[in-house]
Amino acid sequence: MERHWANPSSTHRAGQGVRHAVEKARADVAGLIGVRAREVVFTSGGTESINLAIRGVILRGRTPSAAEAPPAVISSGVEHAAVRGVLEDLAKVGLVRVLLAPVGREGVIDLARFEEMLVVSRPVLASVQWANNETGAIQPIEAIWRACQSRGVQLHCDGVQWVGKMPVASPPCDLLSLSAHKFHGPKGIGALWVRPGLILTPTLHGTQELGRRGGTENVPGVLGAGAAARAAIAWLADETARASLAARRDAFEQAILVGCPGSHNNGPTTGRLWNTTNIAFPGIDAQALLMMLSERGVCASAGAACSSGSIEPSPTLLAMGLEERVVNGSVRFSLSRETTAEELDTAVGIISDCVRKLSPTIAGMTNA
Ligand code: PLP
User: What pLDDT score was predicted for residue 365?
Assistant: First the structure.
């Protein structure tokens, strides 16, 4: 902020120095997903990238007419609130019909049903996440992309949970959303990759970002995203680092399941991001558990959003067919690249103790 204080759109020397730094950061982010720098649009985060991708395709060159049925968009019941929200919004004003591909018990899209829906509803767009934020479940995105390509359907992929944690040789989609704070970058900065030739209607009008996203760039955020991308590229080069974190997560999960009788893992056991575990403690109030954990220094979250004083059960876990009692007792634990085995051991002790205190009736447990 002290050195690169000028506006990157200014033609003076100070501005051009900042432009150079911004373009270097763009090349670094592009390198993380195997694309060319000019295809990357900086945004204020994953949510804005998702909004730009979906609205940008749907509003492109379209004059809605009452006589015409709105075009279909296929998505799934396990998408992030940003995807769900923008699709609901567009559906409300009659701009799209939203069709949700079903998911199985492990939260993975039923590919055969997805393909059937492509044939029957002939959508203009599909929007599917690469990996789930609550369970870590990985979607069969390459197969989804092949199915979309064979029907001429554009695919937006919410890659926010995937990018930076897993390698991307080249994006299996037409539009890819990412967010820097998911790979140790700053919050409030993200990007949308747009396949060359794809025209988008901007949501924020202006001249910056080749007219695709107006507004003076968030330079500190952009440079932070570039630095985080460089660090992620270096980390991703060693496959064993991911494998050892996955093993650490599995051991942590196993220790909790043993320490808390009645608990179980909600997500898949294979085909899951290395950093996530979603554990159900049926009959326990997840919000109460989170508060106790927080007091003792364990930061976790529930897939429940608190809105107007009421707790909404996680739509993702409900879409997976879990009972509300299980959903309301489910907690998500996430590791980072830096989480150590010692930290996880300490957390297991605290979690087991808190669960025991909240569930005196679970067989074999006493309320100490
Ligand atoms: N999509 C997924 C899968 C996410 O996990 C998140 C954030 O948690 C987002 C989108 C939104 O990203 P951001 O927080 O950068 O707006």
Answer: 47
354 is catalytic: no
Long-range contacts of 339-347 (CB under 8 A, 24+ apart): 339/245, 339/248, 341/248, 341/251, 344/248, 344/251, 344/252, 345/255, 347/252, 347/298
Q: Which of 58, 131, 48 is nearest to 83 (CA)?
A: 48
Q: How far is residue 277's CA from residue 247's CA, in Å, rounded to a whole number?
A: 12
Q: How far is the CA of 302 from the centre of ligand 1 (A)?
A: 15
Contacts of 90 (CB under 8 A, 6+ apart): 54, 55, 58, 73, 96, 98
Residues 343 and 299 sit within 8 Å (Cβ to Cβ): no
Cα(320) to centroid of ligand 1, in Å?
20
Q: At what angle do helices 219-236 and 13-32 cross, to 10 degrees?
A: 30
More confident of the two residues 304 and 172:
172
The reply to whether ligand 1 has any atom less than 6 angstroms from the CB of 276 is: no
Ligand 1 center to 263 CA (angstroms):
27
Single pTM value for the model: 0.95
Q: Cα separation of 211 and 264, whole Å?
A: 49
For ligand 1, atom 13, name the residue with the nearest CA.
46
Res. 169: pLDDT tops 60:
yes
Please tell me if the CB atom of residue 165 comes closer than 6 angstroms to any atom of ligand 1: no
Per annotation, catalytic residue among 148, 157, 173, 306: 306
* Helix or strand holding residue 202 (H, E): none
11 C-alpha to ligand 1 centroid (Å): 34
Q: Which protein residue has the closest C-alpha to ligand 1 atom 14? A: 46
Residue type (1 letter), 83: V
d(CA 314, CA 192): 26
Q: Is the CB of 330 under 6 A from ligand 1?
A: no
